[in-house]
Design a protein that fits this description.
Elements: H1 18-34, E1 44-45, H2 46-53, H3 57-69, E2 74-75, E3 80-82, H4 88-112, H5 115-134, H6 137-154, H7 158-171, H8 183-199, H9 203-225
Helix pairs in contact: 1-3, 2-3, 4-6, 4-7, 4-9, 5-6, 5-8, 8-9
Length: 226
């Protein structure tokens, strides 16, 4: 019988519920947005995501409904979704909120991050440098997400992490547009400052470095919007 190989004496395996499947699909789509895999102007179909995840279209539609409600995606047609257009007013609002929330999270992380967290951050920083040197945008964006969220998770607040994730769902797809400006190199300078501040447990320094990173990206994006 299929699945019998997974049965062990004394271990009861509960079939995956529909709700759990929907949550898993939601998490997968969320990660595609956060690491820059869905690019502004690109349309993604419900069926293509369902095929990629090996599920029916129903949990994909539910995940997209939740992400549309969070302003992370928009319906382009009945079967396709894409990244919403970024207006100047929305960009400014996102910058202002990120400027406060992410700086607070980083300052909290400076007080809580242990040596293992610092070592992991060093690995993400190395990946950022390598991706930038190679001109590999996708790898850079994945490493950028991993670097920042290693910091924000270390803050120790699930509520704050959820707020930051919602902000990144709305802004991170546009990080694809920063490469040609040289922003990735500028961002890596700020990343080095964040790393040094966290290593030294300097909350004020990491707060300043996070804000400088946010401002540098904002300056490029607001210029592109005209």
């Amino acid at each position: 019988m299929a699945g019998s190989a997974f049965r062990k004496p004394g271990v009861e395996i509960t079939p995956l519920s529909r709700e759990t499947l929907q949550d898993r699909v939601y998490r997968h789509v969320t990660e595609l947005i956060l690491d820059g895999s869905i690019v502004p102007g690109e349309m993604v179909t419900v069926q293509s995501l369902a095929d990629a995840f090996g599920v029916s279209p129903m949990p994909v539609r539910e995940a997209l409904r939740r992400l549309t409600a969070a302003n992370a995606l928009m319906v382009v047609s009945g079967r396709s979704i894409g990244i919403p257009a970024l207006s100047r007013a929305r960009l400014i609002d996102l910058r202002n909120v990120r400027y406060e929330i992410e700086a607070i999270a980083a300052a909290w992380a400076a007080e809580r991050m242990d040596d293992r967290g610092i070592a992991l951050l060093r690995q993400h920083l190395d990946a950022l440098e390598q991706a930038n040197a190679a001109g590999d945008v996708k790898s850079y964006l994945r490493a950028n997400y991993a670097f920042h969220f290693s910091i924000y998770r270390a803050a120790g607040s699930e509520n704050m992490l959820n707020i930051i994730e919602n902000l990144w769902l709305q802004i991170s797809p546009y990080f694809n547009m920063l490469h040609d400006s040289g922003n990735y190199s500028t961002a890596n300078e700020h990343h080095q400052e964040m790393f040094a501040a966290l290593r030294d447990r300097n909350a004020e320094a990491v707060r300043a470095a996070v804000r400088a990173d946010i401002d540098a990206a904002f300056d490029v994006l607001v210029g592109l919007l005209g």
